[in-house]
Amino acid sequence: MKKYRISPVYTASPPSSALYTPGQVAKQADPAPDTLASLSAATLQALQDLLRQGEAENTLRSYASAMRYWAGWMQLRLGQTIALPLSVEVVLQFIADHAPRQTASGLRTELPPQVDAALVQSGCKSKLGAPAHATLVHRLAVLSKAHQSRNLPNPCQDPRVREVLARARKAYARQGGRVQKKAALTKDLLQRLLDTCDDSLIGLRDRALLLFAWSSGGRRRSEVAQADMRFLRRLGPGRFVYELLHSKTNQTGRASPDNHKPVLGAAGAALEAWLTASGIQEGAIFRRIRKGGCLDASGAGLSAEAVRLIVQERCRLAGLDGDFSAHSLRSGFVTEAGRRNISLAQTMALTGHQSVPTVLGYFRAEAAIHNPAAHLMDDEDGSSTPDAKK
């Protein structure tokens, strides 16, 4: 098979910083002479650094991935190098190539199979076939942001594009498409993971990590990776409060009572055991452990990816079947709260969710099987009512 190589575009910079990085996209519009021309190279670099550091790492990676895909698709499908602004026609072709529609022969898109295969071979996508609706929307949103940040005519805002995209969403829904959520690690499943953790340094760390993430409100993997002793306050033996100053929903570090996350009970005891065994007194709370069972002397914390791998490895050791990831701790906490009828306000105070519908999705999915209306055909003692005589 012929090997394809796609020239990197936006390999590091997000669309929001592109105003200060001219030349990354071919034929990019030059900055207005009365604005950026008077700024020094050092100032431009400082602005670029601020913009990059103001974005979460996951966001930067998602921007780079989306723009790399656009570059690969244009090169392989249209034989063109990506150059902003894109035309409305190009964006419409992109939607037709990626949004499946029902035909007499089944679902299909306009993306030629050989181009699809080349995109996979080049690393622009992971597998053959149409993307999920969320992926298509994300790639268009990143392209739109790239145009907006340069004050260029935005093809994604064209009425024709918006109308087709709205209809495509309905088509996805009719085809049975829905958001794929990771399986939830509720209390019973979490206990099975904890049972795989022995009293070695790795076992103590993983037990503390799992309980810290779950019991403090379902922390995101980035929040676990960035957990630092500076923000951990001891209330007593095995009792802590962690101040979460920065999160996905609080990127400016604003002060709030909800920033304080309790680490009590089993979670507090596990954290106490880990800190005692590791001797950690400052810096990252959760760290790498070298071969031989020694703590990494560099003091560097785990990466967000390492947190994901730890959760998945513990799921494997526990023999759990399902699509689990680090996010399963977060969804498991919310699902368990719904099972126990914990109030929505109390749950959201710990999780940090800003969207009530998001949390209700977990609550209602779990509550459906406990709805008394589902048992109207049963007698009060729980037995089934026999069929009425004819």
Taken in chain order, the helices and strands follow as: HHHEEHHHHHHEEEHEEHHHH
Give the number of domains.
Answer: 2
The side-by-side strand order for the widest beta sheet comes to 3-4-5
Radius of gyration: 25 Å
CATH topology label of the largest domain: hpI Integrase, Chain A
Cα(first) to Cα(last) distance is: 70 Å
| CATH architecture verdict of the largest domain | Orthogonal Bundle
Q: Please tally the β strands and state the result.
A: 7
| Quaternary structure classification | single chain
β-strand percent reads 5-15%
Task: Characterise this structure.
- The chain has 390 residues and is mainly alpha-helical.
- It has 2 domains: 15-174, DNA polymerase, domain 1 (Orthogonal Bundle); 187-370, Intergrase catalytic core (hpI Integrase, Chain A), CATH 1.10.443.10.
- It contains 14 helices and 7 strands.
- The chain has helices at 41-53, 57-78, 88-98, 113-121, 133-149, 159-174, 187-194, 201-215, 221-225, 265-278, 304-318, 327-339, 344-351, 356-367, and strands spanning 101-103, 106-108, 232-236, 239-243, 260-263, 289-290, 294-295.
- The strands form 3 sheets. The chain has a 3-stranded antiparallel beta sheet.
- Strand 3 and strand 4 (239-243) form a beta hairpin.
- Helix 3 runs parallel beside helix 6, helix 8 runs antiparallel to helix 10 and helix 8 (201-215) packs across helix 12.
- The chain is globular.
